[in-house]
Amino acid sequence: MLDKAVVVLSALEAGPATLAQLVAATGLARPTAHRLAVALEHHRMVSRDLQGRFVLGARHAELAAAAGEDRLVAAAGPILTALRDSTGESAQLYRRNGEHRICIAAAERLHGLRDTVPVGASMTMLAGSAAQVLLAWDDPERLSLELQQARFDASTLSAVRRRGWAQSVGERERGVASVSAPVRGPSGRVVAAVSVSGPMERLSRTPGRLHAPAVLGAAAVLTEALRPTAPAGG
């Protein structure tokens, strides 16, 4: 039964899921999937979003913080600092949490006009280049629901998948532009989005032309940091 519970949690790494979607993703019988999801919800490993869909619960972040083993956050500091220094713009790392994205690490521009996003800030999944990245590789059925209120559409996300990065101009906040790229876990699944953001006056209406290579480079380094390390010895 523990193995099946892990299968349920792994399926929810991709984002919110109805019971039917959970059954399809796991291959479990509907009563089994429901029983496990409800049991995991009792232990705060799973919770529900505003639409009643199952999502990963807050207990995961608490356990990672308590163990000090959140490799993504641990690796992010120097990488975001280097990204900020190379682009001259504020850099952030976002992780999805149900219907929101959470800033889990940031390196702010040191002076002048900047886009300030504090660590811990919860932001919408309906606008912004980071939201585009976190949704672009989602399950198509789930994605059709998520796009109903978004400020971008399916063709935008198709372009994100094709080129490997996203940009937005005034989508989340007037006058702010951003560029984001996906960070992938060991399984290849998108687990976070790394971004740079700043005033449109500096980033222009095509910020990807300026900063996509740097953001993609930072995302690649973060992805590499999440790869399992081979045990020492021989």
From TrEMBL:
By its UniProt entry, which InterPro entries does this protein fall under?
GAF-like_dom_sf, HTH_MetabolicPath_Reg, Tscrpt_reg_IclR_C, Tscrpt_reg_IclR_N, WH-like_DNA-bd_sf, WH_DNA-bd_sf
Give the IclR-ED domain ranges: 59-228
What are the UniProt keywords, alphabetically?
Answer: DNA-binding, Transcription, Transcription regulation
List the Gene Ontology MF annotations in alphabetical order.
Answer: DNA binding; DNA-binding transcription factor activity
Q: Which Pfam families match?
A: HTH_IclR, IclR_C
Is the keyword Transcription regulation in the record? yes
Give the GO terms filed under biological process for this record. Answer: negative regulation of DNA-templated transcription
Residues in HTH iclR-type domain copies: 1-58
| Protein name as annotated | DNA-binding IclR family transcriptional regulator
- Source organism per UniProt: Kineococcus xinjiangensis
Per the UniProt record, the lineage of the source organism begins with: Bacteria, Bacillati, Actinomycetota, Actinomycetes, Kineosporiales
